[in-house]
Amino acid sequence: MAMQKPQNPPQTGRPMGDGAVSATAQENENLIRRMFTTLNEHNPNKLLQFIAEDCVITNVALNKTHNGHPGFMEFMNVWLTAFPDYRLEVTNIVATADRCVVEFTARATHTGMLPGPMGNLPGTNRKVELKFVDSYELSNGKIRRGRTYFDTGSLLSQIGLMKA
Asked: Which of 35, 86, 137, 145 lies in the 20 to 30 Å Cα band around 99?
């Protein structure tokens, strides 16, 4: 009778050479889904558990970069101030061992100040539905780099500052 070789359980992470450990694609997808659930709670302090202390978050549409936890909080507070009732709906996630791309829809009312490249835009009380794509680089179970993409023309049109 031949002995069968025992099967190894799936690895939950692997060394990346610089002390960082990558996760499985499924673990990263689960992490991002938990983060989006937390985002809908509107408590940015609770989000720091998902963000590396030395993270770099880039708002590509506005060409603005935010560094570390203070920068991440600044990034989040911009959205919370301008759209305090926002709700995010994840529509698609593609994940690997060290990256994750998320498509989502934000629905909100523009009631607060929104900083932009040409100055601050006061609240308009208009409803907004905006599509986003966020791209994340992850290690050790945290977001190290994030880039957010959205159509500024669609946003400006929906808040009444530009004709469609």
From this structure: 86
CATH number at residue 83: 3.10.450.50
Distance CA 46, CA 90 (A): 19
As for how many domains the chain has, the answer is 1
Spatial separation of the C-alpha atoms in residues 125 and 93, rounded to whole Å: 31
Q: Which residues of the chain have pLDDT under 50?
A: 1-17
**By the 8 A CB rule, do 105 and 91 touch?**
yes
Phi then psi for residue 72, to 5 deg, are -60, -45
Q: Residue 33 sits in which domain range?
A: 21-158
> What pLDDT digit, counting tens, does each position of 8-28 carry?
333 344 444 455 556 899 999
pLDDT of residue 30: 97
Integer CA distances (angstroms), 145 to 56, 59, 67, 102, 130, in order: 5, 11, 9, 14, 22
